[in-house]
Fold:
Amino acid sequence: EVQLVESGGGLVQPGGSLRLSCAASGFTFSSYWMSWVRQAPGKGLEWVANIKQDGSEKYYVDSVKGRFTISRDNAKNSLYLQMNSLRAEDTAVYYCARGGRGNWNSGWDYWGQGTLVTVSS
Amino acid sequence: DIVMTQTPLSLSVTPGQPASISCKSSQSLLHSDGKTYLYWYLQKPGQSPQLLIYEVSSRFSGVPDRFSGSGSGTDFTLKISRVEAEDVGVYYCMQGIHLHTFGQGTKLEIK
Structure:
């Protein structure tokens, strides 16, 4: 059974940093693109970042470029999101999601339960 | 950036009746590889999003056949042939031709 379990969310002050983690199981993690998708309270879904199977390609939504870094450790079956210079508008539930095995265009077939990040003073 | 526009934004349907959601993209979603990267997701209350339809019309594993997707280029439709109580939630279309963007979401409720 495919499982994605996020952790690392919490309350952080504006300008602060946080590192999210996603533990994957039930599939060959190193064979899939992985992504982070977020959802602000009461709002819709927003894609945040993608990373290729070997970490050689990464893509970000414009609003987080230069502040967020997506990474992965295939030996640990884990996905990460380092978030720096956090802003109030980054407040959201962050989901880890599994992409495809081919190109990055594929949607996400499995999602984690999400972890809440709150940026507030 | 590609803009995804869903209509309607809310839908109230009697159980057993059909429902339809439209999704229009600001650019064609047809890739040079011949695939059209349009997806449909359902987010049930209090849950994570779940994949319903991939590449316009393919149902994901376990998705009931009352759900169907159609369309091409820039115009797409999700249809539910007979709405059931368990179908309540917010439906999102999403494009994967130029990074990823979602539609605003369509909230389906039961009458």
Summary: Chain B touches chain A through 25 residues (CB under 8 Å). DSSP finds no helices and eleven strands in chain B. The CA atoms of residues 52 and 63 of chain B lie 6 Å apart. The longest strand of chain B covers residues 19-25.
